[in-house]
Fold this sequence. Notes:
42% of the residues lie in helices and 20% in strands.
Amino acid sequence: MSKSQVNKVVLAYSGGLDTSAIIPWLKENYDCEVVAFAADVGQGDEELEGLEQKALRSGASECHIVDLKEGFVADYIYPTVMTGAVYEGQYLLGTSMARPIIAKAQVEVALKVGADALCHGCTGKGNDQVRFEGAFAALAPQLKVIAPWREWDMHSREDLLAYLAERNVPTSASATKIYSRDANAWHISHEGGELENPWCEPTKQVWTMTVDPEDAPNQAERVQLSFDQGRLVAVNNDKLSPYQALTKLNQLGAAHGVGRLDIVENRLVGMKSRGCYETPGGTILMAAYKALEHLVLDKSALKFREQLGLEFSHLVYDGRWFTPLKDSILAGAQAFAAQITGDVVVKLYKGQATVVQRRSPNSLYSEDFATFGADDVYDQSHAEGFIRLYSLASRIKALKDKGQA
Length: 405
């Protein structure tokens, strides 16, 4: 499809500098109608305030703001938690999990308004271009995809500001922006500024969601999470929707400085990047869920679930949500999650979320067997035969090496 064949484009619009410039650029270079689309994934009301008017002033014909908060938590976050997915052992996948539901909603808007193209503001250096376009390919391969950062000749914030000024398009952005941030119901990420040097410790101005652990209360706080078949259903015995429960955990965790992370990660496109993440509620939720898993799943089941989590972390990070592989991994994880019912108490203190209590009707823990005191259920002499059989291969090899077998 050539530029002349594009009549209507749906743009993933945030109201920031990049997407504000993309609207007039699309109209000039593709001579098309631009429909702005914005997803509410829990980034905060302040991020969405005045967004429709801003899009229209920039030249969009209309603006669709779609509320995805509950669906994001219930259908993307909770399933990912069930797999135990943590990218490269640390990153809780906040940005990665949000992209597929945003892309899906963007496609739905495009089909609704009769658009023939989709557009995003992702740069050619990042992961998000792959995540969005991978979802587009799976959901609407007939729609053209436009990625301005791979086409236009602008390279900096100054270029974009000058472009908008020439066209009298209003913007509140300035050339002095320090950090690139992305927020949703699960987390907020921070990149840029001093973070581009991995030897620089993040300054206090980097963090925006959580209290500095050094300034957190000196009194610990305990929070009880209740699960039913792998899904969080109550916080401190209050039954809440998925989004409400996560919001409550965010508030509790943030007040104690829980969930800060400073990492260097491997991007899908080949380069390393340094980012700081704040995931207070997610850190609490993951700790509680894993505590129940350890109570309920046997050794081989937990090992296999861990393997699923490792694979799923890369799947989500690499933008492969809408694939048969995702469906297969989730099916396995949900089979285990059917047993994850119970309560967990997490202690919040000075940046730490520590599990201190756990119980489940499906628990495999038996005090009768585990006790260091006297018991009537375990004959310790049986262990000798088990160990001899368990180590038989090693015994045979050692004897053979010594010429005795």
